[in-house]
Amino acid sequence: MDRIFIRDLMLRCIIGIYPDERQEKQDIIINAVLECDLSKAHETDRIEDTINYKSIKKDVVRMVEESEYQLIETLAERVAEICLRDPKVDRTTVTVDKPGALRFARSVAVEITRTRDSA
């Protein structure tokens, strides 16, 4: 299986369960692995034969910046759903990091893997 990586997408949104977390947008970092078959794309060199990761990124940015979820688990699930909208994506692994969520820890993260069958 081939992979396309979207790495360290840094965004801001309302996220958290505590009242102080619901006041202002916080930093989050999203990583997504898009698993697919890229064999046709390398033969044709055409965008139509691969995953348009710019389009996926735009949809993720729009959704995240408008979101107000309590859990990073929910946010990760919504990102995975966006990735799997592209029919060429067979499987995706999404990691959502919340820097500064815990004192003395650089970040807290959730990682989920979803397949087309589970979408």
Short précis:
The protein has 119 residues and is of the alpha+beta class. Helices cover 29% and strands 34% of the residues.
How would you describe this protein?
The chain is an alpha+beta fold. It has one domain (2-118): GTP cyclohydrolase I, C-terminal domain/NADPH-dependent 7-cyano-7-deazaguanine reductase, N-terminal domain (GTP Cyclohydrolase I, domain 2, 2-Layer Sandwich), CATH 3.30.1130. The protein is 29% helix and 34% strand. It is built from three helices and four strands, in the order E-E-H-H-H-E-E. Strands 1-2-3-4 form a four-stranded antiparallel beta sheet, covered by helices on one side. The radius of gyration is 15 Å and the shape is elongated. The two termini are 19 Å apart.
Which SSEs are present, and which pair or pack?
Blueprint lengths: L1 E12 L12 E11 L2 H6 L8 H14 L5 H14 L5 E9 L7 E9 L4
Antiparallel strand pairs: 1-2, 2-3, 3-4
Trace the largest sheet across and list its strands.
1-2-3-4
CATH architecture, please? 2-Layer Sandwich
The 3D shape can be described as elongated
Number of extended strands: 4
The computed structural class is alpha+beta
Q: What is the helical fraction, as a range of percent?
A: 25-40%
Q: Give the C-alpha Rg.
A: 15 Å
The span between the termini is 19 Å
CATH class: Alpha Beta
Provide the CATH superfamily. GTP cyclohydrolase I, C-terminal domain/NADPH-dependent 7-cyano-7-deazaguanine reductase, N-terminal domain
Uncertain stretches: none
For the residues shown, what is the average pLDDT? 95
Biggest sheet architecture: 4 strands, antiparallel
The structural domain count equals 1
CATH topology: GTP Cyclohydrolase I, domain 2
